[in-house]
Amino acid sequence: MNPDICKTKYPIILIHGIAWKDMKIAEYWFKIPEYLRERGATVFVTNQDAWNSHTERAKQLAIEIGDFIYKQKCDKVNLVCHSQGSLDARWLIEKLDMKNKDGIQIPAKQLIASYTSIAGVHRGSKIADIIIDHLPKPIRPKLVKGLNKVAASILHDKNPNAWEAVKELGTQYMNETFNKECPIVDDSNNGYKDNIYYQSYMTRIRTGIFFSFCPADRFIFPTWLIMKHLDGENDGVVSTISAKFGKFRGVKAGIPFGPGICHFAQINQFVGLVCFFNPRKWIAEIISDLKSLGF
């Protein structure tokens, strides 16, 4: 093992997606932070609300990351985001200020060296559309209230808003509202915009998932079938089309004829029970690549 393979110039900030965050009972990025630290990375894991709007989550990120920068006295950081976390980070960069190493509030974009999106919901998710359009209105209030209670009591969310979190992942909201406020970054300038390097990664599920016994694969199998019909290649939650942002680094599918790599496997879930793929090694390769690029 090379102890410095992930020793980037700037610290790594891991930003979680919807529904869960780092808890003592189960991490979001399961066993990934320590794996990166063993290979030289300085890593900070965010703890913004699991169930809330991207605007509220981004405000929480601004405080968390700003405090980290001030304490570490670092000039900039590298953001590595999963799923909805990619939207929180985009809002942070475009709209908010953050504390620098001297404790002065400045535009957040001045403190970001690079932005990496893993299965980001940049153009919305068809699964979110189905929930928004077809969840029966009579049961919606009770279901949302129950989710908010769980988020507050178990996940310790400050002010959970489950319905807003789901609604903002819909394709209509993303394309007609969010992406007008925070425009999509393409690869026309090799992923660079405002002196920030933007890149994105994606995985997909193969038909071999039919024969997989991994818990995450069995859980996500139905949504993969639906997504495949509605939006093509996907990881069970997000389509490849939706995930492209900045310099697109391609789609990983694991071993030939295997089940592929689902949305949960990207972050080593459920609790490391992942078939034919090493998520920790994959994330370390992404970080190592950032190092080679000078970040």
Q: What is the string of SSEs from the N terminus onward?
A: EHEHEHEEEHHHHEEHHEH
Largest sheet: 7 strands, mixed
CATH classification, class level: Alpha Beta
CATH fold field value: Rossmann fold
CA-based shape: globular
Low-confidence stretches: none
The overall strand count is: 9
Written account of the structure:
- The protein has 295 residues and is an alpha/beta fold.
- The protein has a single domain (12-292), classed as Rossmann fold (3-Layer(aba) Sandwich), CATH 3.40.50.1820.
- It is 38% helix and 14% strand.
- A hairpin with a 2-residue loop joins strand 7 (192-193) and strand 8 (196-203).
- The longest helix has 19 residues, at 54-72.
- The radius of gyration is 18 Å and the shape is globular.
- The model has no long low-confidence stretch (mean pLDDT 96).
Brief overview:
This protein is of the alpha/beta class and 295 residues long.
Descriptive tags:
alpha/beta, 9 strands, globular, Rossmann fold, about 300 residues
Write the layout of secondary structure elements.
Elements: E1 12-15, H1 32-37, E2 43-45, H2 54-72, E3 77-82, H3 85-95, E4 97-99, E5 105-107, E6 112-118, H4 126-134, H5 140-153, H6 162-167, H7 171-181, E7 192-193, E8 196-203, H8 215-231, H9 240-243, E9 247-252, H10 279-292
Parallel strand pairs: 1-2, 1-3, 3-6, 6-8, 8-9
Antiparallel strand pairs: 4-5, 7-8
Helix pairs in contact: 2-3
